[in-house]
Amino acid sequence: MTPKLRERTSLKLEEVLTSRSRIRILKALAMRGPLNISEIKKCTRLNYKSIVKALEALNCMELVGETDHDRTRNFRIKTENVKASAMGELLERLYALEREPHAYEERRTCKGNMPTLLHTRSPPQVSQSRYKALRESPSMVE
Question: How many structural domains comprise the chain?
Answer without folding.
Answer: 1
